[in-house]
Amino acid sequence: MIDELKKAIIRLSEEEAKSLLFTVLLQGDLLKDLNEELAKQLNKTTESLLNYHKQKNQKEKYSKVHVAFSHSTSGSLKAALNHPRDEKVKVIPIDDQFSYGPIWQLHQETGKECRWEWLNDNINYEEGELDDQIRDNKEKINELLQVPEGIPIFIWTGSNAHEQIGVRYALYHLREKRNDVYLMNVDEKYRRTGEVSAEKLKEMYEKQLRNKPLSNEEKQAYINEWLGLANTKDVLRIWKNGEIQLADVSRYDRFIINLAKKLHNERGEHSFMKSARLIGEAIGQIDQNLDDLFFEYRVRSLILQGVFDIKGIPKAMRFYSVKLRSDLKGEK
């Protein structure tokens, strides 16, 4: 009974745990002088918790689990693989951005705190967005850990640092589970899985179903790679020559500057341009899976270095415009 209760408590989400704790505290306060009645009430709460998880598991029956590293890919997989005549699948999105920001000891609380602090200090999230993202990812990792034995797990990835690091991070968390794990690589012509349509994902899935699951040796190799990455303190990682490489955070600054010069020339005048325009061009031309938040961070860094003049307030890219300083526009 106690072991079963412990497992049920571990599976609670943050909101469910708060609700249970509040109930216990309330009962304790109201019944502190009625020990026998309190014992009955706590026993009732315990039974309710166990019944809740039994009902939840019955509702959530599935035969396969797919792991994706973006909500876009997750949505496409749900559309591609969940059909009435097919076996029900569960899709777990772990939507962090592993290409940038510290991942030092990210599998531990100290590493999570370090990453949160850096992202909070450097990246322009909407209010509450970062906390929501971190809480959601924690819940998704817990969901992954609760996948029953015997259910195969399919991890989707592409040729980019973000998803490749995600593979290693997920496999580290799965290190004590004995489920078969399949690595689903999308075609190399796509930079990331989020670019692939639902129809194409289904084709790739059916084609790769014949593949063998990762061996224990292959799993351990990925886990060791994660532990190696988790000992680094760099804040930018790229995918080059088929491997994850560490890079200086300013690696694409010169690219951004040259792109700004090009846009100035195309406009025929050295005037302010929306930062969103510059950032959008950068994302479209770069060969890495880096998002608008990263490039907006680098544009702000270049503003602080005196490379760009600014008009507006840099609380988000839609609120300000930039132009190269006049004395820099001819430099290469």
From TrEMBL:
Quote any Pfam family the record assigns. DUF1835
Domain named DUF3658: which ranges? 210-320
The segment(s) forming the DUF1835 domain are: 65-186
Domain of life, source organism:
Bacteria
The protein here is known as DUF1835 domain-containing protein
Q: What does the organism's lineage look like at the top?
A: Bacteria, Bacillati, Bacillota, Bacilli, Bacillales
